[in-house]
Amino acid sequence: QVQLVESGGGLVQPGGSLRLSCAASGFTFSSSAMSWARQAPGKGLEWVSGIDSGGNTYYADSMVGRFTISRDNAKNTVYLQMNTLKSEDTAVYYCKARLGMNDHWGQGTQVTVSS
């Protein structure tokens, strides 16, 4: 079955960096579009970034220049490099795979930006 396992979250100071990973299994990763979304405390789900099977990348406006999405098809893993983190980036970050008309989600990883 489809599995998405996020890792790499944690506590970081404002201005710091983190790299999130999402290890995928149970589907043909290399031909699948992947994305990241987040949910801050008390708020709805927010799309962060996406990468298609051709390696084209997409970002929410507030992430441009700070976040970088990438994928390693040999490792079935998608990454989110987050730099210059702000307190408002605090959220649970989720990995998503778009398979046909269905979306599959990971369990999420907590990112807390605080001094």
Describe this structure in words.
0% of the residues lie in helices and 55% in strands. The mean pLDDT is 97. It is built from no helices and eleven strands. Strands 2, 4, 5, 6, 9, 10 and 11 form a seven-stranded mixed β-sheet that branches. The protein has a four-stranded antiparallel β-sheet with strand order 1-3-8-7, with no helix packed on it. By secondary structure, the chain is mainly β. The protein starts with a strand and ends with a strand. It has strands spanning 3-7, 10-12, 18-25, 33-39, 45-51, 57-59, 67-72, 77-82, 91-99, 102-105, 109-113.
Topology:
Blueprint: E1 3-7, E2 10-12, E3 18-25, E4 33-39, E5 45-51, E6 57-59, E7 67-72, E8 77-82, E9 91-99, E10 102-105, E11 109-113
Parallel strand pairs: 2-11
Antiparallel strand pairs: 1-3, 3-8, 4-5, 4-9, 5-6, 7-8, 9-10, 9-11
Q: What is the helical fraction, as a range of percent?
A: under 10%
Order of helices and strands: EEEEEEEEEEE
CA radius of gyration: 13 Å
Largest sheet: 7 strands, mixed
- Please tally the helical runs, counting DSSP H or I stretches of 4 or more residues: 0
Q: Note the beta-strand portion.
A: over 45%
Number of E strands: 11
Mean pLDDT: 97
As residue ranges, the low-confidence spans are: none
Shape: globular
Structural class: mainly beta
Span from first to last CA?
40 Å
